[in-house]
Structure formats: structure tokens, C-alpha cells
Amino acid sequence: MTALLVTLTVVEIALVVGVLATYLVLIDRRLRVVSTHLGKIAFGVRAVESQTASIGPSVVHINETLSEIDSALGPLTDKANAAVAARGVPGTGQR
């Protein structure tokens, strides 16, 4: 009886090891596919980065110019609202 139990235990251990090995092989294959896709994505991101590198300084200049325009428009809108209010046009107040 003991020999039978030892034999069944060894067979069970062999089955568990076999199943684990099979799943590890399947996981390895899936990870290789994922790695391939991530490599392609990284290559594309590097290409986009290199092609858009020259935009950075231009955006800074554009933002500075827009800030100047914004600060200049503040007093103009105040003057326009004051002129409209002086004329008494209804419904044209500042929102």
C-alpha cells in the first residue's frame, strides 16, 4: 500500500510540474509577443519625438506673444465696455 501511495504521489508531482511547465511556456510566448509590440511602440514614440523636437521653442515664443496680447486686450475691453455703458445700450454689460 505504501508503494502505491508513493507511486501516485510521484505521478501527481510529475503532472503538476508538467502543467506548470506548459503554462510557463505559454506565458513566455505571450510575453515575447508583447515585447515585440512594445518595441514597435517605442520605435514610433522615438520617431514622433525626433520629428516634433523643433516645435518646443516655437511654442514658448507663441505663448509669450499670446500673453502680451492678452495683457493688452484687458484695458481695451474695459474701454469698450465703458463706451457702451456711456451710450446706454441695454444688455451689453461685461459677462
TrEMBL record:
<keyword id="KW-0472">Membrane</keyword>
<protein>
    <submittedName>
        <fullName>Uncharacterized protein</fullName>
    </submittedName>
</protein>
<keyword id="KW-1133">Transmembrane helix</keyword>
<feature type="transmembrane region" description="Helical">
    <location>
        <begin position="6"/>
        <end position="26"/>
    </location>
</feature>
<keyword id="KW-0812">Transmembrane</keyword>
